[in-house]
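User: quick one, fold this
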Amino acid sequence: MKILVVDDELVSRQKMMKIMASLGDCEAVENGKDALASFSKAWEMGIPFDMISLDIAMPDMDGIQVLKQIRTMEQEKEIPKSKQVKIMMVTSHTDKDTVVESMKAGCNNYIVKPFDKDRVVQKMQNLGFTIP
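Assistant:
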């Protein structure tokens, strides 16, 4: 499994990286621009990400904007829904509007900070990933 972790906060990024690295090949970036670049590069190389852990609150471009752009790029590449990257939004925002906006934009799941490995694994299993 190939995983991209996107979070501008160093501690959260490192924590998610530690969890995800035990589950697959993991890469991390700290902003939306780099996330989009990594996503595109992975497709160009023929080894796309299976999973993206995407923080919502980031300074340059919020996670929902990144999510929308990724989904647009997938549509442009005519990637069938079954082959699209699974995106789990990660945030401290628990308000209904943020959750609804994320789901409408195309996220597959949602996890609230603080998180732990058991919670992340459970969310990934809910997305259909087999976790050893």
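User: anything notable?
Assistant: The chain has one domain: 2-125.
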